[in-house]
Amino acid sequence: MSFLTYLKDGISLGSVYAIIALGYTMVYGIAKMLNFAHGDVIMVGAYVVLMLLTKAGVPGILAIIIAMAVCTLLGITIEKVAYRPLRKASSPLAVLITAIGVSYLLQNVALLIFGADGKTFVDVIKIPSLSLGGGKLIISGTTIVTILASIVIMICLTMFVNKTKQGHAMQAVSEDKDAAQLMGVNVNGTISLTFAIGSALAAVAGVLLCSAYPIVTPYTGAMPGIKAFVAAVFGGIGSIPGAMIGGILLGVIEILSKAYISSQVSDAIVFAVLIIVLLVKPTGLFGKNIQEKV
Amino acid sequence: MNEKQNNHEIIRRMRRKSLRNSLLNYGIVIVVFAIMQTMIATGHISSLLKGLLVPLCVYVIAALSLNLVVGISGELSLGHAGFMCIGAYTSAFFSNVVGDSMPDLPRFILAILVGAVFAGIFGILIGIPVLRLKGDYLAIVTLAFGEIIKNLLNVLYVGVDSHGLHFSTTSAMDLNMEPTGRQIVKGALGISGTPKNSTFTIGVVLIIITLIVVQNLVNSRSGRAIMSTRDNRIAAESIGIPVTKYKLLAFSVSASLAGVAGVLYAHNLATLNTKKFDYNTSILILVFVVLGGIGNMTGSMIAAVILTALPEMLRFLNNYRMLIYAIVLIVIMLFNWAPASLDFRSRMRERLWKKHGSDAEGGR
Amino acid sequence: MKKLTRVISVCAAAAMVLTAVSPVLADDEKFVIGGIGPVTGAAAAYGISVMNGAQLAVDEINAAGGINGYQVEFISADDEHDAEKSVNAYNDLKDKGMQMLLGTVTSAPCIAVGGEAANDNMFLLTPSGSAVDCIAYENAFRVCFSDPAQGAKSAQFIGEHELATKVGIIYDSSDPYSTGIMESFVAEAANQGIEVVSNEAFSDNRTDFSAQLNKAKDAGAELVFLPFYYQEAALVLKQASDMDYAPKFFGCDGMDGILTVENFDTSLAEGLMLLTPFTPNAEDEMTQNFVKAYEEAYDGLVPIQFGADAYDGIYAIKAALEDAGATPDMSVSDLCEALKVSMGNITVEGLTGTITWDAATGEPEKEPKAVMIENSEYVAMD
């Protein structure tokens, strides 16, 4: 039974990673940039919801929708001001560095506005926990919502990318920006849309992250952001189902290594597994194997 | 025949240019060193700046070494702080074990060698498996290695007594030492009491050694081979260049130099723990390299100096300090890298100097 | 283009150098106390609290006529909880005329600054640097308990009050404070007949404690010892309650502040015990006044023990300066020599108890207070 408990804990943690990784992989797959500020957009989303709930008394669902709108706007602005001017720069590293700059900026703005003290996140989701096996295995309401939400988001994103016109435009931009432009795709618009969707997802991820682990500080997004990045790589960057499965696996490995090997070196174990996977499958579990052309 | 002569001429010109750049770099370092020494000698220097001199050397060396991997070899490494960490820990350990049984300077020189060698060995060990990966995948694996090194050192306890060294990965009590034994590595507390041997002069000497190593490597046959693999891996392979071997060479030399930066860091502060060497520091060093211009050694040095000194110079802003720092970073990046800004700058320059911007490629 | 960039860079560098010269000379008319701590970065909550507490004490002292008739100025600098930045901050404060240092707030930076301060023979009183090596030099003193003292006192308290025989520990393996307390706790537990049934760490993941809690539960721990800060502890308590695990929880001084976390469901902390020298809802007049003044000065922020330690630290410096009859025109080194002696003579009735110092080791002598949370209030335990 204790194994099942650990497994359940791993899946709960993994589903949070998964939901962050979905937004990450979306932006990476289409804009081809590591958006280091993604974790900080999550933090902004969490603060917005928290402030709306506690200071303005807005109902939960409405608060989440407003937070999604705020993050969408933030994401589009960041893209337009800090990333777009560098899209054609001579090295792709340039935009990586401004992303880091944006990450610092968001953290420090939050520090000035909200202060350094952690604030407890209030319950947005009120679903009773599920008790299995006569109370031996308890699955909390947050976990259920997080898992369901990440599955729904994964399916919606896959459908969107594969079935809609905008989705096809995204795929085209992802494969070849110039060719897509020649075919009449609005590249700037498509990338803006990608950031909009990615940032709206970040707001949802922020709410779920902070519901599962209810403390918000200006640095709340940083470490989960990095872990989700690892999860996205694990599953194969750019692959939507890969991000989901990568996230869940990462969570399970983390908890099981804490439980059965050593909690002192569990971080090292997680990263070691990642390295081994990448050495065997150099583009991640579900990554496309891109043939190098001369 | 004519074409061949032409090629020779081009190569000669290129060599002359790179030689000129190399000499310029030594010149800059020596001039800055002379200015600083004069300021110290005449007392016209603030404590803040004086205290910053050694850290500046640390970051300059770290940036130069990372530029070898990112700029010359064309690989993205996000675990450079891990190699600094190896250099710092091994050398601080060495200095603490040897203690006063050796005079300061020879001990510190040995400590530098220890740090460089161990970091280089780790560079080779890590480089062999990971250099098969490309781009962002390589980046994440190097990040992962950096985090693994940090995590393992956090649970490492080492003590020394008359029976020799004792190791433990659980706690200080499990070292089973004699009561007179001395704990050297104390888990998360790291190593404290490392002698303060780093000086500005030694730091500058190490910068010059780093420049010699890096610039000679770049301008050597190996260097050209490394750059050819960066520019076109398949073409390089097809003319028989052992790509992996050269990439590994650049990676391990870079790791070793990062180790030297770590040694300098460790011997400048009374305390050393792994917190400093997380991915944030790796990223910071990458920022120096990109801001200064990928592959441009002069730029790396200047960027490392400015970005290390900037937060200190902004102290008067109090709480707004790091906010302004972030904005400055973004603005400089846009100014230095955005094609629109580069166009604008070359147009402005044309108007100012009234000549054609023939070296517009130098926008980096 | 390269040239232009280079010219701009060199100009910028030159400008920085120029602004960096000309250190400010010490002012003979007032005492200048420096404060160093993290005001930005993940540890900012502690640094900000110290700066606030110290400033409050300084304002009070100035309003009451200063020290030996001289006004006091408090200047602070940010170190982002980084040893190297901390040394930079120290040098910067020195340029601004600092004569005594109240800092640094966190342990590792404090060790680094301690080395520099010893070279300059600058008096150092750390409000909250609890690692043993923070006060390795004879110019250094501290207000808080050392890590080993806290760990051992916690084990003794649990043993003497027979709170539990099977104890689980969760600690932060990346934090010297937490690791230090854990080690001394384990060492003392054996003497107290306490069995440590699970000893689990966390580091990078500071939000998910389910595996550590489950291991303690499986091992049958009756009490879980949590030697780390309240922000993580709030999550531990929430997750324990989610999994229906209700052992006794026991924390150290870092736990103080848990009731003031905004929106925290304080019912989760019912029965939580902690060993702390300061509680913001203590009944005595001094604490009440301090909390009231603090809340007024800082937008309703409730002080945590860091602020109280800093407040006591400033009053300790005041007492020592008065004992030595010091004046601001004395050199940094002379002040340090005088204060080193006087620290051994003074007794401070502070927020964190009645404190005296051992002039040789720099360690404070005060009684730890054990409190238990009942009905969302601290209740003293004996």
Q: What features would you describe in this structure?
A:
The complex is a heterotrimer of chains A (294), B (364) and C (382). Chain A is mainly α and 294 residues long. Chain A has one domain. Chain A contains eleven helices and four strands, in the order H-H-H-H-E-E-E-H-H-H-H-E-H-H-H. In chain A, the strands form two sheets. Chain A has a two-stranded antiparallel sheet. Chain A has a two-stranded antiparallel sheet with strand order 2-3. In chain A, a hairpin with a 4-residue loop joins strand 2 and strand 3. The longest helix of chain A is centred in the first third of the chain and has 30 residues, at 2-31. The model of chain A has no long low-confidence stretch (mean pLDDT 89). The model of chain B is unreliable at 356-364 (pLDDT under 50). In chain B, a hairpin with a 2-residue loop joins strand 1 (157-161) and strand 2 (164-168). In chain B, 70% of the residues lie in helices and 5% in strands. In chain B, the strands form two sheets. A three-stranded antiparallel β-sheet of chain B has the order 2-1-3, covered by helices on one side. In chain B, strands 4-5 form a two-stranded antiparallel sheet. Chain B has one domain: Orthogonal Bundle (ABC transporter involved in vitamin B12 uptake, BtuC), CATH 1.10.3470. Chain B has 364 residues and is mainly alpha-helical. Chain C has 382 residues and is an alpha/beta fold. Chain C has two domains: 30-145 and 287-365, Rossmann fold (3-Layer(aba) Sandwich), CATH 3.40.50.2300; 148-276, Response regulator (Rossmann fold, 3-Layer(aba) Sandwich). Chain C has helices at 2-20, 44-63, 83-95, 107-120, 147-160, 176-191, 210-218, 230-242, 285-297, 305-324, 332-343, and strands at residues 30-37, 71-78, 100-103, 123-126, 140-142, 166-172, 195-202, 223-226, 248-251, 273-276, 347-350, 353-357, 364-365, 369-374, 377-380. In chain C, helix 3 crosses helix 4 (107-120). Chain C starts with a helix and ends with a strand. Mean pLDDT of chain C is 88; it is low at 17-25. Chains in contact: A-B, A-C, B-C. At the A-B interface, helix 4, helix 9 and helix 11 of A face helix 5, helix 8, helix 10, helix 12 and helix 13 of B.
